[in-house]
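Appendix B, Record 12. Input sequence as logged:
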Amino acid sequence: MCNLVSFGKHILQKFRSRTPHRPRPDVAQSVRNSEATAPQISIQGSNAPSRQSLPAELEEPFEIEGFTELIEIFSLEYQSERSFQRALLDARRAWEQWQDYMEDRDLDSCIASYKAALHCCPTGHLDRAEALHSLAIALHKRTQRTGDLVDINESIDYYRESLSLRQDDHPNQDYILNDLSSALSSRYEQTSDIADLTESIIHGREALSLRPVGHVGRGATLSNLLIALGCRYKQTCDITDIDESIGYGLELSVCHPHRGFILNYLSGALSSRYKETGDIADITESIGYGREAISACPDGHPQRAMSLSNLSVALDIRYKHMGDSMDLIESINHDREALSLRPVGHPDRALTLTNLGAGLHSRYNQAGDLSDLTESINLCLEALCLRPVGHPDRGITLSDLSVALDSQYNQTEDIADLIESVGHGREALLLHPVGHPARDRTLSNLSTTLYSHYKHTEDIADITESIGYGREALSVCSDGHPYRGVVLNNLSVILYLRYSLTGDIADVIESIDYGREALSLHPVGHPNRGVPLNALSLALNPRSNKTGDFSDPNESIDCSREPLSLRRIGHPERAAILNNLALALDSRYKQMGDITDLIESINHDREALSLRPVGHPDRALTLTNLGAELHSRYDRTGDVNDLTESVNHGREALSLGAVGHPQRAAILNNLSRALDSRYRQTGDITDLIESINQDREALSLRPVGHPQRATTLGNLSHALNSWYRETGNITDLIESINHDREALSLRPVGHPDRALTLTNMAIALNLRYDQLGDFGDLIDSVDHSQEALSLRSVDHPQRAGILNNLSIALDSRYKKTGDVTDLIESIKHDREALLLRPVGHPDRAITLINLGVGLRSRYRQTGDNIDLAECIASFKDAAAHALSPLSLRLTAASCWVFTTRTHDSASLSEAYSVLLALLDRSVLLARSIHDRHTRLKSDGLEVRLETIAVDAASWAIHTHDLEGAVQLLEQGRSIVFNQLGYYRTPMEDLDAINKTLADRFRAAGAAMDTFMLSNQAAKNEEGRVEDSVAMYHKLAGQWDQAVEEIRQIEGFESFLRVSPFLTLRNAAASGPVIIVNISQYRSDAIIIQADAKPLSIPLPDATPSTVGTSVLNLSQAVGGYLEDDKSDQIIKSVCQDIWHIISEPIVLLLVNTLKLATGSHIWWVLTVAACSLPIHASGPYVAGQKNLPDRFVSSYALSLSSLTRARTGYVPAISRPRLLIAAQTKAEGETELPNVNEEIRAIYRQAENVTVLEGNQCTKDAVLSGLKDTEWVHLACHGHRHRTEPFKSYFSLRDRNAPLTVLDIISNGLPNGQLAVLSACHSAAGDKTTPDEGIHLAAGILFVGFRSVVGTMWAMDDRDGPVMAEAFYKHMFRNGPSKIDCRDAAKALVMGVRELRKRKVPMERWINFVHYGI
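Logged structural output:
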């Protein structure tokens, strides 16, 4: 028998563990009932065990003692069970209420009731596992609504406890496993803890094993499991996960009630697997499932946005692989629709924003529509706001935004975009460590942005880092990877850039290899095929330059032509492709010399420039490229218009590349080269100065370590060589050599540009040898040239220049050592260079000159006339080579003259004519009056330009060609004034035939005149300031064209050519003109008569030496350094010397042969140093003998032409002429002239109709204005001669800073002028360096239209002014107002001088006055 209490306890224990069946908790049941139709991860509950009968032991007999205690126990248990049931009932009602209305308070009440029920259901209770499960489900639901991590943690704990209370064979084990798997996946979504995901998959797989095919819950488990596997793949990139996931998806896709969801998942999973395997079948299948998913999810379907997004991704991937633009368009359209379904606040909006932004960026890269790029950036910025720091996908958005901003920087060059781009790229890479699935894309994007960053900073570290990231990206993107083509292309471009900086051929070879592979991944028809084609085209160019493989430029050109056909007019990439094609053609031209390549290159860059208007960020690049190509064509053709345009483009490029611009140094270098070439063509020193300044700035932008420093050092060295030749300053040459040494250290053996640096250094060392005589410099020069030659193949475009320089150095060594082998080798090199520079090559002249010099040296050694004949022919051909720079042709002509004058005179006359014509052209091309004057001075030529006219005339006299001698003197003297006169040539005769052409000539002449004299910046048609040199050459071209057209008209064939003698002799219409020709070869006087042949008188004693001595003695006597008596003695001696060596034989001929009467008027045209001699005052100065002033009235003329112009059209005044007196007694900064007022009174006593400007009224502007309205002018003031720049000689007026210069005078036309008396010091004194030009104040007055001028040869004594004025004007007005003639001025001057002599003034004072004109 049992004790009753013990029996009761035993029964209670059994009761607790085996309670009879009661209603199940409704949460688990309701979820379980809907498991087969769940559209997402299902949360499933398990069924309670079925009821069983009590075991036999409970039916054993027992004692009825302690019954009261037993009743109490059962009463307590009953009450607890009743509370449990009540809590369950409350929970069920709350759950049902929540399911009906979805109000959070109902779900909260449900959870609270389950927790209360669980409190009444202690461990061991039969329903505890079920209660735990239901509570876990409710908490999981609340987590899905609130995201509360506490709830999901608690839910998982309850799931796990519920699972632990059930045996493995429990019939509802699959439900709790499935639900726990789902909860762990939910927590992973919040925490990204991979352990949760792994545990979820484990439980999901176990649940799936309990749900065989046909099980009502298998679909839900498959759904949960495939999503969990997909999530883990994203974390680990384990392809087995995605394979397993796709397998589950394929099973679900057959008959799943929510098939659209499964199809959508499959589409995304297959796209992911394609990224791993590159199997195009996956992406094709993905797109197929995506299309089905969209069909299964019509408008309004909750899964439609996801389906659209997945299909968009698949289409974008296939676009990148296949290049079908229709895929890209469809992808963008789907993303737009998806975005409209995911408004602000939607959890997946950031994903869609990012995808759409990427798609638009791809379309921008293809079509170039800037609106696509702008929209892409805006979308990425919005997405970034939705993915703050810590968001798992922030790195993807950062990377996409980075590359979009980089594209925008490349369009706008806004540095803020570039900085932001690099920053985003670096942050993205930190968020995508090694192993991250998006690291490949991020690496590629950052590599690209660093490439752009280099273009701004020129820091090679950016390139190195960019290549590093590119290589890592390539290692991740294996064969078949969708981004492999992009990475290959980027690496190709960046490696090419590094090659261009370092010259490492390995980089360009690798670049080509990557370019070829990238091209293979973009077959014909691929819309992005042009990208690798462009990259490959660029890389192939330098390799051909390095290796000489001509197939490379051909392939490079082919690679550029193909994308050009794909980028029609209007496409934004067309300009870049045109640039690349132009570079390839230019490269082939430099190798093979086919000028059609260069012309096509220029045409392509012109089109590219038209596509990059003002404001385009790449305009400066295109301008620079086009300028370089035009420079190349100039080098080939010698067309100065190309050089001018090259400079203009360079200037515009520089204006766009302001200080701080990343390409400024490159632009400066290119412009500097063009300016240096133009200096060599035109001799304009301002171009050379500007070139040096630009090279110095470029060098400052390329400090030590900069990859392009050697290039800039070379350019600066080259320009300094030229500057040394101008100045002779050895420090410039030393600096040049130092720069070359540094450049050579930066271009070691193997560097592609080493030969160029060696050549530059050889030139500089040879120059220093010429200056200092250090034989070591010459040896080094030869060695460097020989090494450079060994580095340039037979057909290399630089070979000819190296041969030329080596020839010069060898010739110098021959002259030093006498080793004839050097001379023979020098000639051999010149011959080879000449073959490489055929007719038409702009450097042909310098090679011909060098060959001529070498042959002349060999002739002098061997006496072989064949060498001499070839030498002269070489000089002649060089002088005639129109496409070579004028300076070289001038050099050649001077060599021709020197050689023929020394060795063989057969062609000497022709040589002189050619040299004078080239000199005239050289002066004409100078754009300022000062430059024209400078061009007349010798600059290292073999003959002196200052004496070329008299030397040429001396040869003509020697050959008895007096008329030719006169013409040569007219051609080679007063060149500057003659050319100025061209622009003002009267055109009345042409007006009657072709007034339009006459007007064009006048306009062109006026423009040239104004430009040259005003020295102001020129403006083009739009009013913008242009390069002054370019504008001048443009005007000169227009003037030349007008002249040539006039010469085509009958009767105008000789227009502006040297006048024939029959015309020139008209200058002697009023009396003989005596030309005194002083030359080192012979001196003669030529007597010109209006109606007879010229006569010549040898002047054997009038050598340059004797004349120079007289000039020197005279300058000492009139300089105010000696007492009057001593001065007079010297002056008399000079006048006696002049008489004996020059004047006396002439006077004898005039008197004895021509029977010229005493008092006749004669004119003198003096040459070279004789221009400074007072021939008019020469004489024996012996008692009883007449001096020249006693025999004839002497006047001077600058040339026969100037005298003829003064006579032409002159009509004596029929009324009193207007006389302007400009008098300044005390100019600012000058000593007072106390006798000026008396001079004015003396004039008043003789003249009428007088206007006086004196004191404060006597300003430059007032005098110039007065000169225009008067016929006669008398200036009484200080005069000053500028000894080096004669056009700056001046009259001192009121303002010290505003004198009246020669330039001021000749800048004005004074058509009414007749007589000018220049009562001022030095008013007829020219400069000593170019005396044949006759540039002084009196000459300026004559040039502008006055016909008769009185001036002074040196300083004038103020006391002589009143005396001279009184006598002079008394004679002029001697016949009353009706017979006043300015032609009486010479005689009037004689009267004035006579008055001074009566007063016994020193000889210095009375011989000072001279007369010019009629």
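Confidence is low (pLDDT under 50) at residues 1-9, 14-26, 31-64, 1016-1025.
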